[in-house]
Amino acid sequence: MTQQDRRAVSIQEPLRQAAPNFERRRLLGAALAGGLGFAGAGTLPGCSVMAPARTPTPREPTFTIRNAVVVSMDRSVGDFAAADVVVRDGIIEAVGPGAASGRNGPVLDGSGMIVMPGFVETHWHVWSSVTRNMLRDGVEYFPLKNALMPHFTPEDYSIGNRLGLAEAAAAGLTTVNNFAHSTRTPAHVDAELAAMAASGLRGRYSYGNRDPMPNEEVMPIDDVLRVQREWFGPTSPKAGALLQLGVAPRGPALSTPAVYAIEYRAALAAKLPVVVHTGQSRFAYVSAAKLHADGLIASDTVLVHALMQTEADRAAIRAVGASVSFAPQSELRLQGEGDFRAQVLHMKAEGINVCLSLDATTLASVSMFDQMSTVWYLGVPWRGTATEKLARISFRDCLEMATINGARALGIADRVGSLTPGKRADLLMIRATDLNMVPAANVYSALVRAATVANIDSVVVDGHFVKHGGRLVGIDTVALAREAATSLHQIRSRAGGAWAPESAAPGTY
After folding, report:
1. Among 57, 178, 206, 259, who pairs with 255 as Cys (CB 3.0-4.6 Å)?
2. Cα separation of the two ends of the chain
3. 86 has which bridge partners?
4. Beta bridge partners of 326
5. Which H helix or E strand runs over 169?
6. How is domain 3-117+419-472 classified at the architecture level of CATH?
7. Are the beta carbons of 49 and 432 closer than 8 angstroms?
8. Measured distance CA(379)–CA(364) in Å, rounded
């Protein structure tokens, strides 16, 4: 027995002692498991089944996952029915069958697991996470937001961000673009940034405006520059290596063309990338063609929603290499005009980089599986429309939108978004042997249509486990739930009226 084999055995021994019926479950699972097939590769051998990996989290970001189904999202690397992923010092060192041979360090048995890149989310108003269940019949997102938003303190922003980012970690969102569209005060901004820096996730803080803000008022550019200096400066340790800074201006539909130009040009001068809402209906429509004509769109621009974009707009997006972020569940609930299905089909067919996002937890589940499946179900051309001859959205398309396309949109595809040797180790381990995943057949179908957040066993960011064995690492979820309940109770109490809480005290957990 090699040293590596002994390490694998020692990792499994505590599992066997804690679960007397482990071997029986292994045999039952093996009977249920089928093959996980890749397009063009036939049906893969059945996975041997093991209980969820509950190995001690490595102190150093060096480990090997052995004998897993691997979906690399890199066509040059390929996908494998059974392969190893080797991580050393937070970097993916090798991917492929037998890649672990002769290597030392902690070994995780990947049997019965799918290993894939972490999800890259590209537009999420994280601050509002505590209001996730406040929608009610007759009260939609915007009235809710406008009623409660003024009553958030910086501490509420801290709790809301910590809640949202913890759920992101649990859901395999290894990168989050925090579209901070309610920067009430510098203290609120710092509370969000501190929560992001402490989360262990990769991401971007896209500094937006105070909401609501008069159309003719320019966003606080001085504070954007303060944040750039204090949190992201070359001598500042505050933000850490995993975070970026961006700008989220309102766009000419919600300000004025002059104000938007000032804000966008300030972002260009500070060399900060831009993410901007471009409308789910005509009143908020922002024309990409007009922005292009004015020199206010670039390859690092992310256009959100984009339901009203014309053929000329799409041509402008393609010409500069900008990206479009769709929030599928939000698009379906809030679209007033336009056609989400048609836009996805056209943009994919025209070679635009399409990525996915959540928008807000009051509008969407924190699940990239749900966003992918929504796109897949809708991504079918309709006879008698301009989409009739376009290609259907495939499972692979959806996976690309949720991973490598998001990394391209945020300018980090050289670091993450695929399991490519040399990139940072942002990855997921997903149980392929759970009841909702068997009998297994095609791995892409399983990930887009069948998988849920509950199937995620482990989440790794930059080589460090933020979720392991189905549990978040270093987060007291019960205490966080209590803080969130208290925060929402206090916000509702300050809002009063129809928003006042029904009870004198927050819920207990």
Report:
1. 259
2. 48
3. 64, 94
4. 356
5. helix 154-170
6. Roll (2.30)
7. no
8. 19
In eight-state DSSP terms, residue 92 is E
Rounded Cα–Cα distance for residues 457 and 470 (Å): 4
The DSSP string of 180-223 is E----SHHHHHHHHHHHHHH--EEEEEE---SS--TTSPP-HHH
| Helices 340-349 & 368-378 angle (0-180, nearest 10) | 90
Residue recorded with tokens 């992918």: 372
* Per-residue burial over 43-65, b = 16 or more CB atoms within 10 Å of its CB, e = otherwise: ebebbebbbbbbbebbeebbbbb
Is the separation of the CB atoms in 444 and 37 below 8 Å? no
Q: Whole-prediction pTM value?
A: 0.89
Which neighbouring-strand residues pair with 424? Answer: 91
Q: What would the DSSP string read from start to end of 40-60?
A: TS-PPPBPP--PPP-PPPPSS
Fold of 119-409: TIM Barrel (3.20.20)
What is the residue-level pLDDT of the chain in tens, covering all 509 positions?
Answer: 344 333 332 323 322 222 223 222 332 233 233 344 443 333 333 443 333 344 445 556 899 999 999 999 999 999 999 999 999 999 999 999 999 988 888 999 999 999 999 999 999 999 999 999 999 899 899 899 999 999 999 999 999 999 999 999 999 999 999 999 989 999 999 999 999 999 999 999 999 998 888 999 999 999 999 999 999 998 877 889 999 999 999 888 788 888 989 999 999 999 999 999 999 988 889 999 999 999 999 999 999 999 999 999 999 999 999 999 999 999 999 988 889 999 999 999 999 999 999 999 999 999 999 999 999 999 999 999 999 999 999 999 999 999 999 999 999 999 999 999 999 999 999 999 999 999 978 999 999 999 999 999 999 999 999 999 999 999 999 999 999 999 999 999 999 999 999 998 887 77
3-state secondary structure of 418: coil
Measured CA to CA, the distance from residue 400 to residue 381 in angstroms comes to: 20
Three-state secondary-structure class, residue 468: strand
Q: At what angle do helices 141-148 and 477-495 cross, to 10 degrees?
A: 80
Distance CA 304, CA 495 (A): 30
Domain ranges of the chain: 3-117+419-472, 119-409
- CA pair distance 417, 118, nearest whole angstrom: 7
165 touches 126 (CB < 8 A): yes
Going from the C-alpha of 217 to that of each of 4, 145, 200, the distances in angstroms are 63, 21, 35
